[in-house]
Amino acid sequence: MTCKAVFLDRDGVINRAIVVDGRPYAPRKFSEFRLMPGARAGLARLRKAGLGVVVVTNQPDVARKLIDPEDLDRMNRRLITELAVDAVKVCAHRQDEGCNCRKPRPGMLLDAAAELGIDLQRSYMVGDRWSDVEAGHAAGCYTLKIERGYANDRPARADAVVRTFAQAVNHIIHRERNYA
Ligand SMILES: [Mg+2]
Ligand SMILES: [Zn+2]
Questions:
Q1: ∠ Cα 132 138 144 (to 5°)
Q2: Residue 11 catalytic?
Q3: Separation of 133 CA from ligand 1 center, angstroms?
Q4: Alpha carbon distance 9, 58 (integer Å)
Q5: Domain with residues 5-178, CATH architecture
Q6: Model confidence band, residue 144 (pLDDT cutoffs 50, 70, 90)
Q7: What does the alpha-carbon distance between residue 142 and residue 169 come to, in Å, rounded to a whole number?
Q8: Is 73 marked active-site?
Q9: How far is the CA of 107 from the centre of ligand 2 (A)?
Q10: From the CA of 36, which ligand is nearest?
Q11: Bridge partners (DSSP) listed for residue 66
Q12: Spatial contact of 14 and 26, defined as CB atoms under 8 Å apart
């Protein structure tokens, strides 16, 4: 059985990114991990529409030893237990390690699709940076960018650009009802 899913970037989409000088960073302590307003309701609406939900997140601070893996685990477990996310895929590598999972590469999406039976062509990727959009595009998904105007962002060829996670959810549900 194959299913459709929404792949979601984590920081800046589900939880607040720590923004310094216009650049987003991942929270490094569990106490800094705050859900975005509307994250819980938006995820519930996606589930109700029959879509799987998979979080795909780059966390190079693990390789840099700037975050305790236990804190990261607690954050990600919270997404599964409280928000009913189906799976959380983490790339814990630095950019110079050249792995296949670090976005903009699509490795995390491809792995999750193989494990969970997800039809990538009928699925979505939502993120707040160019690398999220590129990963989704490379995996064959419909891509949505939440535009936050980060200082270190780059142009991306998203299928849709929105301002908030709630708008991304509206767009997906509307598209599912009318075109899917
Ligand atoms: Mg992000
Ligand atoms: Zn990786």
A1: 40
A2: yes
A3: 11
A4: 8
A5: 3-Layer(aba) Sandwich (3.40)
A6: very high
A7: 13
A8: no
A9: 8
A10: 1
A11: none
A12: no
- pLDDT band for 1, please (50, 70, 90 cuts): low
The CA distance from 26 to 3, in Å, is 30
Q: What long-range pairs does 143-147 form, CB within 8 A, spacing at least 24?
A: 144/168, 144/171, 144/172, 146/12, 146/13
pLDDT of res. 44 = 97
Looking up tokens 């991304």, which residue turns up?
A: 168
Which amino acid makes up residue 54? Answer: V
Residue carrying structure tokens 């895929």: 89
Number of the ligand closest to the Cα of 93: 2
The token pair that represents 12 in the structure block: 């800046």
Residues 111-126 pLDDT 10s: 999 999 999 999 999 9
**H-type helices in 106-149, by residue range?**
107-116, 130-139
